[in-house]
Structure to design on (286 residues):
């Protein structure tokens, strides 16, 4: 019966007499483990040995600073998602960090900053041309391009890193470097339409356009940074918010003075005192 999965146990008395052998009373049937041998102890894998060679899959899952895969993870976003984030930056209806959904990117911020640089150079050149029209041969000033690159790339890259470092210093555990870079990158989006309409020789309009761009982008930054900044103490959070707004105001003033300077206080060209009639005639070519 053992072959059928059972053991037979027979009760024998001290004199060797089997006695009463009623199978229903003296025989006990137990489940046999012959067909199900006990599991063998699994030997430790080579991964538990600190001196063994690591698995190739381990190397494949790691991203090193000098490899392209390390930087590719920061650009893991498609065009539709970038456009959705751009719309959210221009028409904010919710917290932008919630829109990121834990997947900040550098693809959008890089191309937004690059677009702002070239548009500032283009519109700044048009602004200079209108300001110096009729005063001889006009020469392109390519220092505007280098100046725009230094201003926009520097502001977008340095300020978020510095802010992240300060937040970490004051104990804000929710501060994330990549999210800060993404936030400042998409905040630059407002400068594209502002630059496209700020080449006018009408000074007051340029100040209005740049002012609107400053207010819109500053509100965008403060609204999304405040939940992270407020993790510090109350005094520190207020100071950080003021610093963020002041630095952003500095960016707006630099854009106005460096690229639309024909009506600014540092303009080398003598203006007519803001005669709108003359400027409109010059704009229309009359």
């Amino acid at each position: 019966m053992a072959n059928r999965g059972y053991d037979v146990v027979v009760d024998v008395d001290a004199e060797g007499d089997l006695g009463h052998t009623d199978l229903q009373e003296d025989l006990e049937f137990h489940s046999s483990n012959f067909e199900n041998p006990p599991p063998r102890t699994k030997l430790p894998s080579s991964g538990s040995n600190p001196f063994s060679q690591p698995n190739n899959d381990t190397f494949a899952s790691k991203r090193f600073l000098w490899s392209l895969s390390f930087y590719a993870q920061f650009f893991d976003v498609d065009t539709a998602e970038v456009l959705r984030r751009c719309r959210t930056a221009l028409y904010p209806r919710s917290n932008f960090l919630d829109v990121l959904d834990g997947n900040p990117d550098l693809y959008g911020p890089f191309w937004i900053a690059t677009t702002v640089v070239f548009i500032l150079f283009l519109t700044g050149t048009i602004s200079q041309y209108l300001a110096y029209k009729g005063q001889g041969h006009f020469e392109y000033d390519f220092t505007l391009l280098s100046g725009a690159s230094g201003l926009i790339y520097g502001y977008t890259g340095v300020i978020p890193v510095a802010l992240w470092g300060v937040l970490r210093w004051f104990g804000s555990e929710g501060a994330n470097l990549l999210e800060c870079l993404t936030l400042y990158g998409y905040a630059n989006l407002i400068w594209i339409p502002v630059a496209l309409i700020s080449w006018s020789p009408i000074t007051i309009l340029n100040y209005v356009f740049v002012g609107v761009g400053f207010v819109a982008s500053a509100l965008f930054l403060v609204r999304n940074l405040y939940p992270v900044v407020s993790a510090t103490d109350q005094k520190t959070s207020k100071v950080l918010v003021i610093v963020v707004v002041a630095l952003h105001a500095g960016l707006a003033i630099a854009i106005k003075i460096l690229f639309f300077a024909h009506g600014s206080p540092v303009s080398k060209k003598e203006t007519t005192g803001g005669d709108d009639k003359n400027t409109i005639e010059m704009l229309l070519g009359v």
Observations:
- The longest strand covers residues 6-9.
